[in-house]
Design a protein that fits this description.
about 200 residues, rod-shaped
Length: about 200
């Protein structure tokens, strides 16, 4: 019984010693991990501080150089945008009023001009457009239509007509508006003068 008790005490002592060694080893591992985490945090903090110190002077210099010029440019840009918007609004209002107005005697109907130009192409420009532009464009349109009808099938002509005819109709509307505004036919692609021939200076 005494030997058995002594053996049990020895076994218990060994178990306690092993448990103590395990706990000490675990404590050392936890301490090492905590120390490594602290070192990593300190390293990240130092790197962030270095990056912020390098970026701050360049950013301050750029701000100092660009604040005045950038502010002035932004101010001019806003003023220009506002002026363009107002001018566009005035033009749109004027065009809207002109389109809503019924044509008077001697004026051209922009509806007829647009429909004719959209249906017949440049031939419709003869209604209100400049003859210097409408006649050559009409002749070229007829010749092109004859040539294309002989070479290309109709299915290939449709996409081109779907683009060209609406543009022609828009040009017809613009021709009519210019005619009503000035009282004479105006050139759409060269607005320096109308269809009136230029007069030579006196003495020549």
């Amino acid at each position: 019984m005494e030997r058995l008790a002594a053996l049990e005490a020895e076994v218990k002592a060994d178990a306690d010693a092993q448990r103590a060694r395990k706990e000490a080893a675990l404590a050392r591992v936890r301490e090492q991990r905590a120390q490594q985490q602290v070192e990593r945090d300190q390293l990240r903090a130092r790197q962030a501080a270095l990056v912020s110190r390098k970026a701050a002077p360049a950013h301050d210099a750029d701000d100092a150089d660009d604040d005045d010029g950038l502010g002035a440019r932004r101010g001019r840009g806003r003023a220009d945008d506002l002026g363009d918007a107002l001018a566009l609004a005035r033009k749109a209002q004027g065009v809207k009023a002109e389109l809503a107005r019924a044509p008077k005697a001697g004026e051209k109907s922009w509806i007829k001009s647009g429909v004719a130009s959209a249906a017949l192409g440049p031939i419709g420009w003869l209604y209100a457009g400049s003859l210097r532009e409408a006649v050559p464009a009409s002749v070229a349109w007829v010749l092109l239509a004859i040539l294309a009808s002989k070479i290309l099938p109709a299915i290939l002509l449709m996409p081109a007509l779907m683009v060209a005819l609406p543009l022609s109709g828009l040009a017809g509307v613009v021709y009519a508006l210019q005619y009503n505004r000035t009282g004479k036919r105006q050139r759409l692609f060269n607005k320096d003068d109308g269809d009136e021939p230029k007069k030579l200076p006196s003495g020549r």
